[in-house]
Amino acid sequence: MENKIYIKNKWGDTILEVPGSNLSGADLSGVELPDADLRGMDLTGADLRGARLDLASLRGADLRGVDLRSVDLDRADLTGAYLDSAIKGGK
Question: What CATH number matches the domain at 23-91, 2.160.20.80, 3.30.420.40, 2.40.330.10, 1.10.10.10?
Answer without folding.
Answer: 2.160.20.80
